Amino acid sequence: MPYLATTAADRVAMLAAVGASDCDALFASIPARLRTSQPLALPQPLAELDLHRHLLELARQNRGAELLCFAGGGAYDHAIPAAVDALVARGELLTAYTPYQPEISQGSLAITFEFQTLIARLTGLPVANAGMYDGASALAEACLMALRTSHRNRVVVEASLHPDWLAVARTYLAGSGAEIVVAPGDAAVAALDETVACLVVQTPDFLGRARDLTGWGAAAHAAGSLLLTACDPLALALLKPPADWGADIAVGECQPLGLPLAFGGPYLGYLAATTELVRQMPGRLVGRTVDCHGNPGYVLTLQAREQHIRRARATSNICSNQALMAARATIHTALLGPAGLARVAAACAEGGARLRTALLAIDGVEAVGEPPHFREFAVRLPVAAEEFVATLAKRGLLAGVPLARWDADRPNDLLVAVTEKRSEAELAAYVAAARAACTELGR
Fold first, then answer.
1. pTM
2. 64-77+338-441: CATH number
């Protein structure tokens, strides 16, 4: 085994050091259903040239870049100005990815400070950190924040939260002893009591519906709980900010702000909160000050990670943040400005509304959920959504995301997204292809 440095004798010594008789004993705590009882059925190794040919053959099977994208579900095909790539490639940003000696990375710190500022302005909350890995981990970290602050042991989640985000939160909280309660709509508010640390709600929700959260903050606070809202940052160019709903913490995914689809990452989460919660925020905070000569400067003012303080007091075990992605989001947002962001958001909402209306005019297509929607919506097709997507792919369209991926009881439901990149001609092409596919598959 040329790539394994440990010998058989080394492995025996290591097992003895931990008190295990053999490898089976070492992994005995892992449930049997998760362990394989035989070697993996892997093919024989290939020479480098043969491997290269094989990888090229696999790459040729990917048609994603050729298809007009109407898929969403958390990652969206938005336009990105060419200046974003050009500026973020500058050495003072690209090479100062994670400033451990922050005083020598003023360019990186300055743009991170601007990122924090734009998130604070979008959410209406006074403090935002330097960024999280993605929206799902930001939500999970925010739940941990609420649990630490309240010394309570339950989190109530409104049922329309993105199911992948809920799964990540369950994983994060699995070892904390906290319980996650999932309930729809007003039932989530009704579930609040003296054991609940926070009430979690997403708007726009997983199906793209813009939610009216009037009274949710007051209800949470009356129970001594925090209100945690998950909000798309682009939608906040049009919708009421989380602070106006009474949110104590806001989180979200910044992929719509200048980050390409890129096969699912790297992406960027944001986390903003009230001043009272700042000491429980994970990650980093960049602050602005002046030196002894009165010149402005930037420095890491809070970094309560396990690398910097006692592990038991650390607010997070995250050892990095998506600094380069935060730079992209900041540049993208600055290039668009408030008016540009609002125009992009409006184009998404209007395009989605037009496509939804046109699809509902097709025989057998039914609405799932009521408007208003932002950028995406769900419809119930008269045919299986998986087959519908496969059929439209042959016509050059990535039709959406079948909801059966998360719920087997919804085989005909499809989540469709429309960004500002989709022209009227492309919307018309989708409707025509959808009508033909419904007829063809329904025979």
1. 0.85
2. 3.90.1150.10
